[in-house]
Automatic annotation (TrEMBL):
Keywords: Acyltransferase, Transferase
UniProt record, GO biological process: phosphatidic acid biosynthetic process
UniProt-listed PANTHER family: 1-ACYL-SN-GLYCEROL-3-PHOSPHATE ACYLTRANSFERASE
InterPro entries per UniProt: Plipid/glycerol_acylTrfase (IPR002123)
Protein name per its UniProtKB record: 1-acyl-sn-glycerol-3-phosphate acyltransferase
Species, as recorded: Amycolatopsis vancoresmycina DSM 44592
One Gene Ontology term, aspect cellular component: plasma membrane
Lineage, broadest ranks: Bacteria, Bacillati, Actinomycetota, Actinomycetes, Pseudonocardiales
Length: 224
């Protein structure tokens, strides 16, 4: 019920209020497993992707967000589930494997999963080197990878504002990438790196950001 509320009530309201510029939505396949690979500008990027994509999208979310007690905790967990979040533990190598497995289950079931290859949001506005999890998922599941470029979302909550402000935002879906030519080579580090770099270049082409060939350091605790 909450998922329907988010999709058919909150989604249209958000689009009417913010009027995002959406381009290339026809590039999102209407069936089959799809991996949305997006740049990451702000904490609200997930909501923008959810409301702009024609299919229900799943994301990874911190497990502690779903562990709250009482009415408030259950309400938050329900709302996050409605937005498409899948709870996973974070902070260690084992958690990383669990995150990939959670994403793989969504794709193996023919769903849509969104991932931020940079691993964290960009604090300097530049596009940073991608982690190879996006390649591991694409190669293991055969999912089409759709590059996604978000613009202006960093202006929605400047200075950590609690209430999102009106700002001009945009989302562009690039042409889907097919990596079936690498079938059976999903465990080769060189192939994973090559696929990841191709995905990042596709994001770069539609985002217009400056590219930095180094990983972005994860923000300190408390920064989304």
């Amino acid at each position: 019920m909450i998922a329907l509320l988010v999709r058919f009530v909150l989604g249209p309201l958000a689009r009417a209020l913010y009027r995002p510029e959406v381009h290339g939505v026809e590039n999102v396949p209407l069936s089959g497993p799809v991996l949305l690979a997006a740049n990451h500008r702000a904490a609200l990027d997930t909501g923008v992707i959810t409301f702009a994509t024609p299919r229900q999208v799943k994301f990874l979310g911190k497990a502690e967000y779903f562990a709250g007690k009482g009415l408030k905790g259950r309400a938050l967990a329900g709302f996050l589930g409605g937005l498409g979040y899948v709870p996973v533990e974070r902070g260690n190598a084992q958690a990383g494997l669990a995150a990939l497995e959670a994403a793989r289950k969504v794709l193996d079931a023919g769903g849509v999963f969104a991932i931020y290859p940079e691993g964290t949001r960009s604090l300097d506005g530049r596009l940073h080197r991608g982690h190879t999890g996006v390649a591991a998922l694409a190669l293991a599941t055969g999912a089409k990878v759709v590059p996604v470029a978000l613009t202006g979302t960093e202006k929605l909550q400047p200075g950590g504002a609690k209430i999102p402000r009106l700002a001009k935002i945009g989302i562009t879906f690039g042409k889907p990438l097919d990596f079936s030519r690498y079938e059976g080579q999903d465990y080769a580090p060189a192939i994973r790196r090559s696929v990841t770099d191709e995905v990042m270049y596709a994001i770069l082409e539609i985002s217009g950001q400056e590219y930095v060939d180094t990983y972005h350091k994860r923000p300190s605790e408390g920064v989304a």
